[in-house]
Specification:
Blueprint lengths: L6 H10 L1 H13 L3 H9 L4 H18 L4 H19 L15 H16 L3 H8 L12 E11 L2 E10 L3 E7 L3 H4 L6 E6 L2 E15 L2 E8 L4 H17 L2
């Protein structure tokens, strides 16, 4: 099974769990009952106080669960705020009520800074900006080998759809059709799957020249909710056939 890099699994968990580690540290350091600890924390009900204690770290963790260009910027912004709060912390101040922020917080932030620093290198940063390189997000494809037509402008061109997934399809065309397809936008893919006709909007995600034709990797785009449900049902049926 395709797996997300381990760091991008661990970091969200560390961030989301931070408030609970903070509560545990209060318990260990003070010896107070849980009721007393929660009462004292609940007495700080200001919006900023609540955000700093309960939401500051988990928000960063939730953001980094999904890797794309927007989470890249949002995670950096949230991390900068966390660093600012750590640097401006004063002894016995909220939200730690100790001489210094807890070691756990420093470790999580240092790991995150290291990751952000590494992602400044082009070959790592591009994971956030190019979805094709995020191998763990690609849908499993299923063999079909059925006739399919693509619509370019107002002209349909025949081909063979070799496989399909929820996110796209792989279609092969004959050599004589290559000049017609190259450097053109594919508007729609039309095919029959299990006796049902599908007309799905597509974009060319990649192309490959073959000895006897041209292969296109097509990404489905601008398809309706109903179309997604219909396609999902057919994909599930194909999935059962491959078990």
């Amino acid at each position: 099974m395709k797996s997300k890099p381990i760091l991008y699994k661990v970091i969200p968990v560390l961030f989301i769990a931070e408030p609970f580690f903070k509560l545990l540290a209060f318990k260990i350091n003070t010896g107070f009952s849980w009721e007393t600890i929660l009462y004292n924390i609940g007495s700080r009900s200001g919006l900023v106080d609540v955000f700093d204690f309960w939401l500051m770290f988990p928000l960063a963790g939730i953001i980094i669960l999904k890797i794309n260009r927007w989470t890249y910027y949002l995670f950096n912004l949230t991390l900068f705020y966390i660093i600012y709060r750590l640097m401006t912390f004063q002894e016995m101040d909220w939200p730690y009520y100790s001489k210094n922020p807890f070691l756990y917080n420093y470790v999580v932030v240092l790991i995150s800074i290291a990751i952000i620093t590494m992602t400044q290198f082009p070959y790592l940063k591009i994971l956030f900006f190019n979805p094709r390189l995020r191998w763990w997000e690609t849908e499993k494809r299923y063999y079909t080998d059925i006739d399919a037509n693509i619509l370019i402008g107002d002209k349909f061109i025949e081909g063979k759809m070799k496989n399909i997934s929820l996110s796209g399809a792989y279609v092969i065309f004959q050599q004589k059709l290559v000049p017609t397809i190259e450097n053109r936008n594919v508007n729609k893919l039309v095919f029959h799957l299990d006796h049902d006709e599908f007309k799905l909007g597509t974009e060319i995600s990649r192309s490959e020249e073959l000895e006897d034709g041209l292969a296109l990797g097509l990404k489905f785009s601008n398809i309706s909710f109903i179309q997604k449900i219909r396609l999902l049902k057919k994909i599930k049926k194909l999935k059962r056939q491959y078990r």
